[in-house]
């Protein structure tokens, strides 16, 4: 296939690719950008296209992969662009201010809940929290490993009941 024929085929396929681009991006400008990126990649890689194969499927694959790559790049960047006229960068790292108030409340309540546990449950729970393995805790406290697991389980259950205010709702 000559370059002219390939270019003509790409041009014909662009109308059928546009709805797919719009479905992926959910924005007309982004869909047009994705379509353009797809056509540029297809044209620059025309030597990789094997004549006799499905050009439309090849273009759909390029478009899907381009969209995924762009999306992953945006997520990695961690910046969300406000689409208002001002085009502010929301959550950009340069203007982010930390407020530890919520974390401090959570931490204080967690410590209070742990302190309210009976020592029978608190000791193995805190040892496990600090990185001890079940068998190490069993050796140190001179109790069976099943008892260690049970006490840690009960401690978690009690803490979960005590800290229900912090449970996330889906």
From TrEMBL:
RNA polymerase sigma factor 70 region 4 type domain ranges (all copies): 111-159
Keywords, alphabetical: Sigma factor, Transcription, Transcription regulation
Gene3D superfamilies, A to Z: 1.10.1740.10, Winged helix-like DNA-binding domain superfamily/Winged helix DNA-binding domain
Domain of life according to the entry: Bacteria
Record-linked InterPro entries: RNA_pol_sigma-70-like, RNA_pol_sigma-70_dom, RNA_pol_sigma70_r2, RNA_pol_sigma70_r4_t2, RNA_pol_sigma_r2, RNA_pol_sigma_r3/r4-like, WH-like_DNA-bd_sf
Domain RNA polymerase sigma-70 region: 17-73
Alphabetical list of SUPFAM superfamilies matching this protein: Sigma2 domain of RNA polymerase sigma factors, Sigma3 and sigma4 domains of RNA polymerase sigma factors
Record family assignment: Belongs to the sigma-70 factor family. ECF subfamily.
NCBIfam families on file: sigma70-ECF
Name recorded for this polypeptide: RNA polymerase sigma factor
Organism: Algoriphagus sediminis
